[in-house]
Amino acid sequence: MLAELVEIQMSIARATQQEALQAPQPGADYCQRIATVARSVRLTLLLKDKLSRQVVERRKAAAQREAAQEDFHDLRVKLAMLAAAYEVSKDNEEIARRVAEMRERLERPEVVELIEASRAPVAVAALCRRWGLPVRVERWLEMADEAMEQLGFLPNDDDPPADPPKPRPASGRRPKKPDTG
Fold first, then answer.
1. What pLDDT, on a 0 to 100 scale, did the predictor assign at position 104?
2. Per-residue pLDDT at 113
3. pLDDT tens sequence across 106-115
4. Distances in Å between the alpha carbon of 28 and those of 16, 33, 34, 89, 166?
5. CA 127, CA 77: separation in Å to the nearest integer?
């Protein structure tokens, strides 16, 4: 849409130029018209650039999050299983018992091998079935991701990308302060 808008603005600029060269109207300020259209084109192009950068930043953040999930794959699966154990427990005593059991089970060589060889949703589903826990894979992985965000292993989705620094004058000098007399 923005590209179409720029094309329209450019056609207006061309039409203004043709009118000024071929049949100028008395009293018409063609310089002002061209300046207005040029400013409009610049602002539209800046907006287009800004929006495309935001898309790139979002993609980059998603890729970083996905890479972090892959880097900490085993931690993510373990946290998901601990979340499942926590959710099905009724009181603090049962939570402590189930979490201790879960930690012990997750260290077994066959479980470690399953976790390493499978994608997170597949591993969580298989372990839930094996240990009689509810198979709510998405819920458990969401809880694991939240825990990993809080622990700093994953970038937070809510954090907006950092804004680039404001442009500074090229001269490097600060403007003179006004004389207040």
1. 94
2. 92
3. 999 999 999 9
4. 10, 9, 11, 80, 38
5. 10
Sign of CA dihedral 41, 43, 45, 48: negative
Fill in the amino acid letter for 125: A
Task: Say which residue the tokens 């990308």 belong to.
Answer: 161
Q: How far apart are CA 117 and CA 32, in angstroms?
A: 67
Q: Is the CB of residue 16 less than 8 Å from the CB of residue 37?
A: yes
Residues 6+ apart with CB under 8 A from 139: 83, 87
Rounded to the nearest angstrom, the gap between the alpha carbon of residue 37 and the centroid of all alpha carbons in its chain is 34
Q: Sort 10 into a burial class: Cβ within 10 Å, 0-12 / 13-18 / 19+.
A: middle
Residue 105 burial (CB count, 10 A): 15
Residue 64, pLDDT score: 74
Helix ranges, 72-136 (H):
73-88, 92-106, 109-117, 120-131
Side chain identity at residue 136, one-letter code: R
Tell me which residues of the chain have a pLDDT lower than 50.
161
pLDDT at 179: 66
So what's the pLDDT on residue 144?
A: 92
Amino acid residing at 169: P
User: For residue 34, what are its two tokens?
Assistant: 């061209």
Tell which residue, 7, 8, 30, has the closest CA to residue 17. 30
